[in-house]
Amino acid sequence: MLEAVAGLVDKSVLCREPGPGGVRYRLLDTLRQYGLEQLRRVTGQEETARRRQRDWMARRAEACERGWFGPGQPETVARLRADRDNLRAALDFSLSAPGEALAALRLAGTLWFHWHACGASREGLYWLDRALAAAPGPTRERARALWVAGLLAAATRDFPRGRRHATDALALAHTLGDDAEAAHAEYVIGVIRLFGDDLPGALRHFETTVARGPVPGQHLSLAGLDQVELACALAYLGEAERAVEVCEEALRLCERHGEQWVRSYVLRILALAHTVRADWPRAERHALEALRLKLAVHDVIGIALTLDLLASIAAARGSHEHAAVLLGGADRVWADIDTGRWGSHTLNSARRDTEERVAGALGPEAFERAHRRGRTLPLAELAGREPQGPGRPHPAEPAAPPPHDDGTVRLTRRETEVAQLVAEGLANQQIADRLVIARRTAEGHVERILGKLGFSNRSQIAAWVTARRCPTPARTHPPEGTT
Fold it and tell me: Residue 343 gets which letter from DSSP?
């Protein structure tokens, strides 16, 4: 087997790429389609092969969920992002093959943490909607899928739909006697109250769930988030001391397990509580640490919320130019979620107050320049920037990186040439002719470029190249479904 694989790599039939957990191999598109045709027409084994692939992917997803509340979250994120096409193939098979819909429901629900924590809410909702329609029976899988769909719908601003799904999930879980899925559904209901500006109702809700404690089978991430949302409601209502106490308890839970994602939310709420106390240095320290943890798992919602908070802290400290830069970064990330910040009065009021303070201090033109700069800076730099004191000049800004590589992707010289030719609209054979290389070699370069950039089609490469040539206020993340 090793010799066979090595031979295929030497012949450029397989593309060999470094990846999370080891080396990964990719077939060129034309060869993949040819192989699939042979599997379908010659051997008649397509369904068997696809079922095996789906079952393998389901086992991987279940293992990732079991280990999610632990120290390996960045590695889990990287593996699932590398496996995104495998996930899509598994879900698509389960939704198209007779008798497999329940497996699709199970897989889509198991991946709740991937959809929600890693910036893929819309894609997750797409698969869950299809699976819920295909498997309407009153099963545990459906209870799980309903609350996950509710959470993702709320994350895309559809609060009525989110509340309806979560309420249905709670009712079904009670009917099935499944306390864990009922607790998960209750979390979603509470979150919708919180970001729907029902702060007293959210406070009462999470006081009840936190006092009850985790129920058997409840995922520790969601039990920890119960504490986060309780502290958030307390902080927004001005009860900073109680919020800090709840956060400290949640931090101890995260530290016992080496967990980072829930910890990032705890740190953000600690920062929020310290802003209520007007303890700006401590608030900024916690918020920066939260942002760095969120970047590690690509938590788009958390990144947007934390950048907003950092901007308000910088404004309160008199670092107005830095605050405008942070607002630019925040607005860029919110553009991928909801520019209206879910219509939340609490979030939008804080955003308006910060902008008014900063624009008043800087003046419209200086504010616009700094805001525009923030929209083009890589998020990693925003997370590591030191605020400038009042009146201090801001250091020169580096050139903006392309919108999808976040300053970390590096193409070889040849790959850069190929990417530029793709942007010109050349097909693989034309690229091969232009560079005097074999067509298969050109195909291999295109495949490696797609893999490095996390793209799925040539038009995205073209857009990426164009963004590098003409920097403009850019989206930080690609539209979901192309991540």
Answer: G
Residue pLDDT, tens place only, 44-77: 899 999 999 999 999 999 999 999 999 999 999 9
Which token pair is 459? Answer: 């038009």
Tell the burial category of 425 from Cβ atoms under 10 Å away from its Cβ (0-12, 13-18, 19+): exposed
Mention every residue, 6+ apart, whose C-beta is less than 8 A from residue 21: 75, 79
Rounded Cα gap, residues 425 and 387, in angstroms? 43
By percentage, how much of the chain surpasses pLDDT 90? 63
Buried b (16+ CB within 10 A) or exposed e, 77-103: bbbbbbbbeebeebbebbbeeeebbbb
Instruction: Report which of 262, 199, 263, 213 is spatially closest to residue 186, judged by C-alpha positions.
Output: 213
Alpha carbon 171 to chain centroid, angstroms: 29
Distance, in Å, from the CA atom of 72 to the CA atom of 254, rounded to the nearest integer, reads 13
> Of 315, 464, 296, 439, nearest to 379 (Cα)?
296
Structure tokens at 254: 């995260």
CA distance 447 to 422: 12
3-state secondary structure at position 37: helix
Task: Please say whether the beta carbons of 178 and 146 come within 8 A.
Answer: no
- What percent of the chain lies above the pLDDT cut of 70? 91
Q: 164-221: per-residue pLDDT in tens?
A: 999 999 999 999 999 999 999 999 999 999 999 899 999 999 999 999 999 999 999 9
Residue 386 CB partners (closer than 8 Å, separation 6+) = none
Global confidence as pTM: 0.78
Bridge partners of residue 18, in order along the sequence: 23
Lowest average pLDDT, out of 33-37, 146-150, 279-283, 384-388, goes to 384-388
* Angle at which helices 84-96 and 73-82 cross, to 10°: 60
- H runs (alpha helix) in 67-110: 73-82, 84-96, 101-110
